């Protein structure tokens, strides 16, 4: 039975808008010192971010009005295009190297991160193809095998970009989608073991990753190098107390805390808005994840259900990893906080994914 579309899930929309509001305020505050020093304009990053936010919200609203089932027909095109863009990073002159990592494509005055498109494309691809024949996943050679090959190509490209954090987040999302989609438990156990061994191998083979792990285990052993990010982040969170120092009153943003408006913006948020502000953001992410899972459970078709699950887990996983790093629970990675951190392509594609989630919610029971 074809359900008549209804209004999108308002709780998801509200949570996203409130998170975006937190993000705009914190980008303005966290980036002002660096922007004034590097660009002679304390509003430089904020002005760019607000333009990206407007563009992202427009895209989200447009995508939310599109029947997600029509987009599913182009799943292969989305995926192959994203993989081609990821490979194009390594063509001389196209890839932009920042802090030793080549993750951005040069587009003149702007830059684009292909992994953001790949995260969205792989969820659409898996959701569509698994839903067409879920029992096929039970066959390791003909069903699960091709998906594993795809995952291997994507992870290899991400590791080549020196982006282990995004690779872990994508693999965790794919793993859950495969499990829910009908893969055998023994296959999933084997995949889990392979994944853990792969993460350990990726860390051991790259000296800088090993330094991050040792810095995570004992940041005080080398407080000026391997433990610097973690300690400065904890100083920011701890100094905020319950109510925070107030908007714009952060001391850690004065070049004590690195990447204060991107990877570690949650630490500045905790310093300025305190425990109350940090908990509000966490609760908004919880609301978004809860409603997203509810949409997945109540969706009448398998494609929409898997799509909603993948999109929800992807945002939730990225938020958990980022806040875990900032609070010293996880080793330092290069993952930003969705809707809060500065970053144009990340924000636009994350909002595009939310648009798809809202589209699925229009047809849920």
TrEMBL record:
Q: Which InterPro entries match?
A: Cell_cycle_FtsW-rel_CS, FtsW, FtsW/RodA
What is the designated name of this protein?
Probable peptidoglycan glycosyltransferase FtsW
Q: Which family does it belong to?
A: Belongs to the SEDS family. FtsW subfamily.
Localisation per UniProt entry: Cell membrane
Give the transmembrane ranges: 48-66, 78-95, 143-159, 165-181, 188-205, 264-290, 302-327, 339-360
PROSITE patterns membership: FTSW_RODA_SPOVE
Q: Which domain of life is it from?
A: Bacteria
> What are its GO cellular component terms?
cell division site; plasma membrane
A single GO molecular function term of this UniProt record: lipid-linked peptidoglycan transporter activity
Q: What does this protein do?
A: Peptidoglycan polymerase that is essential for cell division.
Pathway(s) = Cell wall biogenesis; peptidoglycan biosynthesis
Task: Show the catalytic activity.
Answer: [GlcNAc-(1->4)-Mur2Ac(oyl-L-Ala-gamma-D-Glu-L-Lys-D-Ala-D-Ala)](n)-di-trans,octa-cis-undecaprenyl diphosphate + beta-D-GlcNAc-(1->4)-Mur2Ac(oyl-L-Ala-gamma-D-Glu-L-Lys-D-Ala-D-Ala)-di-trans,octa-cis-undecaprenyl diphosphate = [GlcNAc-(1->4)-Mur2Ac(oyl-L-Ala-gamma-D-Glu-L-Lys-D-Ala-D-Ala)](n+1)-di-trans,octa-cis-undecaprenyl diphosphate + di-trans,octa-cis-undecaprenyl diphosphate + H(+)
Family annotation (NCBIfam families): ftsW (TIGR02614)
Primary location group: membrane
The EC code for this enzyme is 2.4.99.28
């Amino acid at each position: 039975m074809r359900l008549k579309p209804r209004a999108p899930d308002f709780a998801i929309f509200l949570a996203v808008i409130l998170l975006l509001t937190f993000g705009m305020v914190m980008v303005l505050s966290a980036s002002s010192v660096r922007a004034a020093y590097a660009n002679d304009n304390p509003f430089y990053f904020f002005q760019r971010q607000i333009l990206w936010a407007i563009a992202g919200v427009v895209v989200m609203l447009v995508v939310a009005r599109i029947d997600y089932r029509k987009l599913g027909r182009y799943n292969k095109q989305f995926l192959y295009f994203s993989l081609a863009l990821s490979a194009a990073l390594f063509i001389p002159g196209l890839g932009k190297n920042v802090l030793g990592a080549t993750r951005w494509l040069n587009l003149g005055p702007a830059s684009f991160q292909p992994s953001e498109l790949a995260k969205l494309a792989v969820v659409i691809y898996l959701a569509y193809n698994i839903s067409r024949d879920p029992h096929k996943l039970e066959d390791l050679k003909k069903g699960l095998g091709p998906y594993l090959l795809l995952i291997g190509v994507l992870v290899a490209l991400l590791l080549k970009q020196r982006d282990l954090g995004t690779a872990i987040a994508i693999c965790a999302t794919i793993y859950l989608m495969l499990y829910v989609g009908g893969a055998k438990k023994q296959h999933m156990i084997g995949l889990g073991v392979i994944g853990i061994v792969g993460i350990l191998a990726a860390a051991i083979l790259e000296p800088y990753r090993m330094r991050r792990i040792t810095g995570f285990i004992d940041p005080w052993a080398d407080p000026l190098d391997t433990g610097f990010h973690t300690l400065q982040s904890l100083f920011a969170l701890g100094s905020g107390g319950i109510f925070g120092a107030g908007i714009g009153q952060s001391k850690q943003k004065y070049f004590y805390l690195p990447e204060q408006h991107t990877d570690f913006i949650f630490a500045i948020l905790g310093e300025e808005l305190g425990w109350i502000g940090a908990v509000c953001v966490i609760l908004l992410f919880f609301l978004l994840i809860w409603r997203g899972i509810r949409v997945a459970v109540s969706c009448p078709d398998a494609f929409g259900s898997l799509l909603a699950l993948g999109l929800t887990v992807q945002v939730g996983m990225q938020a958990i990893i980022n806040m875990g790093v900032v609070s010293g629970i996880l080793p330092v990675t290069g993952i930003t906080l969705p809707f809060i951190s500065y970053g144009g392509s990340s924000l636009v594609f994350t909002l595009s994914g939310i648009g798809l989630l809202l589209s699925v919610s229009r047809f849920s029971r």
